[in-house]
Design brief:
The chain is 39% helix and 5% strand. It is mainly alpha-helical and 151 residues long. It starts with 40 loop residues before the first strand and ends in an 8-residue tail after the last helix.
């Protein structure tokens, strides 16, 4: 007996082939290290002043450097995330009007579990931890483990 269920349909007779209408284009890319947050000036009351990054944004930028998600970031990825860092800094300085844009931008990088699920990203250590977790016996088998059949 070869397997369970009916034999698979001949591929030429299937109604749906589920092929991508546009094939995936694979491009060789070289990851680059995270750049530093830049120094720059902003105009305040017709005067140029040095922009100071909020401590929370510095921590957020460091978090991205340490994230496994950023291991394969290219220069364009870091450039987009740097623009997002400016929004992050504005948010933490009280400009909450940009919250929606900030949320959309970090979602594209897989910042939350929901974002990663939508992007079909999973962390390998989660799978490894699941494999290493001790297996629990079912309640029925553990409940009757010490019993024996009477004569």
């Amino acid at each position: 007996m070869a397997g369970r269920g009916p034999a698979p349909k001949d591929p030429s007779r299937r109604a749906r082939t589920n092929k991508d209408p546009v094939p995936l284009r694979v491009i060789a890319a070289e990851p680059v290290p995270q750049p530093e947050l830049p120094d720059f000036e902003i105009e305040v009351d017709d005067e140029l002043v040095e922009f100071v990054w909020p401590q929370r944004t510095r921590e957020w930028w460091r978090m991205w450097a340490e994230s496994p998600l950023s291991a394969e970031f290219t220069s364009t990825d870091w450039s987009e995330l740097l623009d997002t860092a400016v929004l992050h800094a504005r948010f933490w300085r009280g400009d909450h009007k940009i919250a929606a844009e900030l949320r959309l931008r970090v979602a594209k990088f897989g910042a939350t579990p929901e974002d990663r699920a939508r992007l079909r990203i999973t962390f390998a250590q989660a799978d490894e931890a699941e494999d290493k977790a001790p297996r629990r016996e079912s309640s029925a088998s553990s409940r009757y483990a010490g019993l024996r059949l009477a004569d």
